[in-house]
């Protein structure tokens, strides 16, 4: 695991070690165990290394036999041993015992098609000296990040934006408040800036499963080497037993591949199905005791899953450590924003950050359950969307009226608060299916978005704000609010399956995996996600959708595959997201949030209607409404401006 960065000067000016050092120093947390550099005239590469496999060797840059190919990469290639055997038979000679060198030799034989042979998570940069060309690429799901900046003189890339900004040629300019009127609306709707755009002008994120080639003269070529498979529609004749055996076998293989390590490893264990199943398979295939880690928070027991994690740990016999903390969200805000580089409204970054930091005290690698909800339709909003589809006969005015009546009732801040959940459902159910799903997921709903932004920035529901990736290219009032139109030739027939596909293309890489990467790497902890094995994902896509979402039961097929490994009460547990009692914390002491959001600096930005911000704070503090998601989105936005724009 590493952090990587590099520079190409199109005018031929030499890259200096000092330039690379300035960028590389910003990535020290991603790789505290060493650093490496390559300077070849107008091209420079640098990296920081966290040693996981082949600790004594595999220092980067890695090269082929004659040194004409130089590689830096961040990640793990889980099938490297199989690849190495094949390459040995083809006459390649290796200098290291690690996974990275296989990429350099594969490139010799296959060029950019080498990416198709890799099974793992990665962001890489490969300098082909003979062709005078730099290849960049990311893994299929986007587990490892890569950002780029380009103008007529220079091309710069890095694992994190803060490293890009350390290069003197990269401008520090915000997209918010510019002529790009959708930027702020996108962030307030999604809670993140959808890739490939970022919060910075002219800085882009390389998308998952994508490669980019840059020549010394500035010519750029790009392409995709893999696509998410289309999900199989429901099949009334499908039998669960026809799939559970193969699914269990593929899950076991995905876990076994991720147990290869020369340093201690463990697992995050929330007590939910996904992380519990991964821990169970680790125990089954590990020769040593498995360490598991969970975290809980004081303030609201409805968010505390540590009793369930302990239950699973006792059943599996793991060496379990449960941390229970009383965190100050506002105290953590500056550090979280610094590591995310952009405003990021997902408050579950707080527990992810803390459990990563505490886990790193014991192990260097942790397996996670990330991806299980996306592969097997685990989110409650998928069932809610299916229920809405069935309630299509109810007139929209009745549903809107019900939402209006529910809005008069006070909202609690508990995880399962019934008033809040019923109001959101009734409001969303009055909309067409794809817009309804987006309404359930978004941070600021359409009405509140229009209220809080200036009139020329407000964008109605169903417009490109709700389109996801490449939203700015879609016309106003687009009828496809989740942006699936470009996949129209392969859309599954089932409406809710389309929503699962949309989640895998947007929320998974732009929110969940960003959070997992930043929060683990700030602690120099490598997080591995067996559910995001692409061969497992390809198989899961073939399973009929009604075996994933079966009536009101989400992840039905995965639950059946877990029988015998976990207690039935854990398998049948109601879905519980990884969260924290942010609403209760803010309600108990709203003063720090009020001071930051209503400060003179915040007012002078002119981005928001401050009267609406004041109303959100007052309604939350009084107990009338739970605005914790919206307030956290605004807090990270303001803190980001202070660190990355004002500073």
Provide tags for this entry.
Rossmann fold; alpha+beta; 26 helices; 647 residues; 17 strands; 6-stranded antiparallel sheet; 15% strand; Glutamine Phosphoribosylpyrophosphate, subunit 1, domain 1
Description:
The protein is α+β, with helices and mostly antiparallel strands and 647 residues long. Among the domains are: 2-224, Glutamine Phosphoribosylpyrophosphate, subunit 1, domain 1 (4-Layer Sandwich); 241-376 and 504-571, Rossmann fold (3-Layer(aba) Sandwich). It is built from 26 helices and 17 strands. The strands form 3 sheets. A 6-stranded antiparallel sheet has the order 2-3-1-9-8-10. Strands 4-5-6-7-11-12 form a 6-stranded antiparallel sheet. Strands 15-14-13-16-17 form a 5-stranded parallel sheet, sandwiched between helices. The chain is globular. The protein starts with a strand and ends with a helix. Residues 455-480 and 483-490 have low confidence and may be disordered.
